Amino acid sequence: MRIILLGPPGAGKGTQAQFISKKFDIPQISTGDMLRAAIKEGSELGRKAQDVMKAGGLVSDDLIINLVKERIAKPDCVNGCIFDGFPRTIPQAQALADAGVEIDNVVEIRVPDDEIVQRLSGRRQHPGSGRVYHLQHNPPKNEGLDDVTGEELIQRDDDKEEVIRERLATYHEQTSTLVGFYQDKAKESGAAPHYHQFDGTQGIETVKEQILSALD
Ligand code: ADP
Ligand code: ADP
């Protein structure tokens, strides 16, 4: 089972990826989390990605495609995986297809721009695991601390209003075109993937139930 989660920053992709990962026992592949880990390590990839991420732009397709190819070759991906935040451009989607990686389901989570800024300003993350919380909508049990490890939560550098607006613009310019790309593919006779759309303004639990039952 290979799944792509599509939607603007803050739509709830990471949140829902964790539920899907648990239910189907397949790993979540978040290119954003992998890039943040690379920055923390100070690797060459991290150095190359840092500035563009801070500005709300996209890291180059070549770097991302290599990163994902290496990741999906690992043994935990034999039964499938969830792509969270990848692909973000047509060349990335094309590279996946050219590599023969078949996608079974594309899950689009829709949230209007005006709600995104509020959502992302309240987001807090556990950097070690990628677990996400929200100050109002999904608070941790103990303020400022991860539920599982008890470690401190952080606010991402790019979750500031001016960068959020830039990321939204990037989404509309470069990523939203993938909606049509995968819808068209789904319409081709007999060809995977199935395309599903969800209203991401509903509560986290409601969205979860709808997605899990669609994938079942
Ligand atoms: P993405 O991975 O698409 O950027 P996240 O899963 O990180 O999105 O969610 C962004 C923020 O919004 C987080 O703080 C998360 O807790 C919160 N959130 C996720 N889904 C919902 C929802 N359905 N309703 C309200 N807040 C949500
Ligand atoms: P969000 O879901 O909140 O937008 P991510 O964690 O997915 O954030 O991504 C954070 C940043 O990492 C993006 O703004 C972009 O700079 C970079 N990034 C992540 N995934 C990709 C990708 N597939 N292609 C290019 N850049 C990416």
Can you walk through the features of this model?
Helices cover 48% and strands 14% of the residues. The chain is α/β, with parallel strands linked by helices. The chain has one domain (2-26, 79-215): P-loop containing nucleotide triphosphate hydrolases (Rossmann fold). A 5-stranded parallel sheet has the order 2-3-1-4-7, with helices on both faces. A two-stranded antiparallel ribbon has the order 5-6. Strand 5 and strand 6 form a beta hairpin. The chain is globular and about 50 Å long. The relative contact order is 0.19. The model has no long low-confidence stretch (mean pLDDT 95). Bound molecules: adenosine-5'-diphosphate (ADP) (2 copies). One adenosine-5'-diphosphate binds next to helix 1, strand 6 and helix 9.
Low-pLDDT windows of residues: none
Within CATH, the superfamily carries the name P-loop containing nucleotide triphosphate hydrolases
The beta-strand count equals: 7
Portion of residues in beta strands equals 5-15%
Q: CATH class, please?
A: Alpha Beta
Number of helices: 9
Q: Report the average pLDDT across residues.
A: 95
CATH fold name, please? Rossmann fold
Q: Give the radius of gyration.
A: 16 Å
Structural class: alpha/beta
Comma- or semicolon-separated keywords:
216 residues, Rossmann fold, binds adenosine-5'-diphosphate, alpha/beta, two-stranded antiparallel sheet
Summarize the structure.
The chain is an alpha/beta fold and 216 residues long. It is built from nine helices and seven strands, in the order βαβαααβαβαββααβα.
